[in-house]
Amino acid sequence: MEPETHLPDPASPTPPLAPEAAAMPAAATSDVPAEAFAPRTDLAQLTARTQAVREQIGQVIVGQQDLLELLLTALLADGHVLLEGVPGVAKTLTAKLLARTLDVPFSRLQFTPDLMPADVLGTSIFRPAQGDFEFRPGPIFASVVLIDEINRAPAKTQSALFEVMEERTVTQDGTTHHMTTPFVVLATQNPIEQEGTYRLPEAQLDRFLFKLNVGYPTLAEEIQILQGHHSGFGGTPLEKVKAVLSASDLAALRQQVGRQRVEANVLEYIAKIVGHTRAHKALYLGASPRASIALLNGAKALAALRGRDFVTPEDVQFLAAPVLRHRIMLTPEREMEGGTADEVVRAIVQSVEVPR
Q1: What digits encode the pLDDT tens for the residues 133-170?
Q2: Nearest residue to 280 via CA among 343, 212, 326
Q3: 3-class DSSP state for residue 147?
Q4: Which residues on neighbouring strands pair with residue 72, listed in sequence order?
Q5: pLDDT (tens digit per residue) in 269-280
Q6: What's the half-sphere exposure (Cβ side, CA atoms, 13 Å) at 170?
Q7: What is the CATH number of domain 60-244?
Q8: What is the pTM of this model?
Q9: Residue 15: how many CB atoms within 10 A of its CB?
Q10: Which fold is adopted by the domain 259-356?
Q11: On the CB side of 219, how many CA atoms lie within 13 Å of its CA?
Q12: Per the omega criterion (within 30 degrees of 0), is the bond before 217 cis?
């Protein structure tokens, strides 16, 4: 929509407003910061940097383009990701490759039923010479943390992640320790195994920006995988993948994402989609305002990743399922009928009028 241009009053000495400011009510413009009228963002650097990440991971991973785009979107939106899929579809490998493209500290945690919170967060060690305790950080103190099979740890260990995933801090013995920036948790889980697993609590699921379903490769992609292994590619040559993004680079890209333009009607569109989950007859639990914020931040990052400095309703529609599928709960009747969260999200999106 083209902004409305107001001609200045010839009798008034006040200079005309910029076109963006002129479209706003006079009472509101005085409260809007000057950066709101800044020139449109140049996304050339962001496009080049993210393309370099794609190329590095593409040396090892065949296909999975949508998965990679969503992982990059979460990275730019400063969000955690839950990867769900059957064994052998490269969930862990993809997460490790993404971490290798970043020049930041990385750690990997294998969750097991006997894992304790101290094994994740760290513990205090008594120092006899000094007569005090020293905190020894656990593996969670890294910029990119890969948690493999997150649903294999019991509730006690799961709850240890609540604070660090949301507030980026760890409180131990009355002392608060702050995480470095960036801090991203990439977790994997198997959707079909029941033995030795624990369902993630809703409070923890809500802390993940996206839940991504990792499916099987296509026939052509699987043939390409086999050809690579047959010709001697073999194994998982992680050393091929080099770091192309530093912590400062990522911080600069996230600042660009934060300056993305979002029209008021798109904000309303997001609120309506999330609001419909709270009144849908097939849902026992709807999404919280945190889901609305996640959908907004994700859409801004996705638009930037696709070379636009503004968010469209299509960006919101594309991310509706990854943002909402783990934040809603079907009624027992709908589950017995074989319904899925994705089907309900799709129906809600289709029922909400698209802004023009």
Answers
A1: 888 999 999 999 999 999 999 888 988 899 999 999 99
A2: 343
A3: strand
A4: none
A5: 999 999 999 989
A6: 23
A7: 3.40.50.300
A8: 0.83
A9: 7
A10: Helicase, Ruva Protein; domain 3 (1.10.8)
A11: 0
A12: no
